[in-house]
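Appendix B. Chain record.
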Amino acid sequence: MALRDSLANYFGFEEHGTTLRTEVLAGITTFLTMSYIVVVNPSILADNPEIPIQDGISVPGYSYSEVVAMLAVVTIIAAAVATLIMAFYANRPFAQAPGLGLNAFFAFTVVGSLGISWQTALAAVVVEGIIFIILTAVGAREYVIRAFPEPVKFAVGTGIGLFLAIIGLQAMGIVVDDSETLVQLGAVASDPVAIVSVVGLLFTFALYARGIRGSIIIGIVATSLLGWGVAASGLVSGDAADALVAGGASATYDITPLAGAFVSGIADIEAFTFALVVFTFFFVDFFDTAGTLTGVAQIAGFLDDDGNLPDIDKPLMADAVGTTVGGMLGTSTVTTYIESASGVEEGGRTGMTALVVALLFLASLAVVPLAAAIPLYASHIALVVIGVVMLGNVVDIAWDDLSYAIPAGMTILVMPLTYSIATGIAAGIVTFPIVKAARGEWSDVRPGHWVLAAAFVLYFVVRTNTLA
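Structure tokens predicted for this chain:
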């Protein structure tokens, strides 16, 4: 009883019209809806041994499954730390973890396409987090928001959704390479991986549409079991059977090869490219977090008469500190999860909800070995489901205004087609002032817009000449 009273007083249950039981149920609900990240984040960040080029984190002397297990531990710790700060400092029912989209940018663009070492990529995450902390501490949020074109901010979520979806569909064998058309439909009627993936994806969509709590993690586990079952039954054999199963579960909890690796990455910095990576991490993290906080806060009834979230700097600080700690430990940028809305809809109104989520993340350390037993095609079901959900952001764009539609459209199209979040953002930023100027709407263009556009044009010139 004393503990219950202490929690009620600390988090202000009476003030927010909630109870301990409601907060606990809300926390459980939020955790179930976002727990897939414990499996998905490691599968994205770990260097895929089946791809010739490095496209993520690999540690000499450690197997792929061991690296996945390390990353699962780091994912859990980073999520728990950030969400605990959200609970006790911000007293908001928002949960945090390494974000989808930015982990793909980390692995496929920064490490894969740009050829930057994963240690240097982690250094960029840490630097971005520190910048975020400083800007939040001095209250510079409004100045940062004004520096970026509005249509680009609204378009980023949709572009990332398409980017995630194509990554997931490729891993599932539903979309494959083609020398003439670039991509085409995979052998969904003959490839065992594609068949199992389609069944798993449709099953997961059905659960999600029904509003089943934990539908994504249920879908991932069910798809994994189906793949293992098909392989074990003898319906397929040889390479086809091997493709359906993952490596054996690894029980390593040693994260020392990852923790602090960003320090060695600082020595391997090429200034302009590093600045672009930091900029992209910051841009997506800042606006994704701000947008998510506003959206979930609206559901909770937290917004004031002007549509602003009071004391938003506190949850932003939780995000910034979580990102910094996560980068130091060995994972990509931490952000607030839109899945927090599920807990809010269950009645969660205080940091107690976030505290429950953080404790459940810590408890999930017990199942870390299972993360390495999830096949890639099964874990990437989450990318397709979340990618489809993120397409809903497109309704916020003023498509009847060409000065908005063109930059937003370029951001959305270029991002998945170039396999780069940064390039998509850059395309929108370069387009915005040009279109505005062409329409004579000079008052809508600030000097910062031209500076950012010029910087990206210079980057494209340097980068594409280098690639040539």
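Further analysis of this model is presented in Appendix C.
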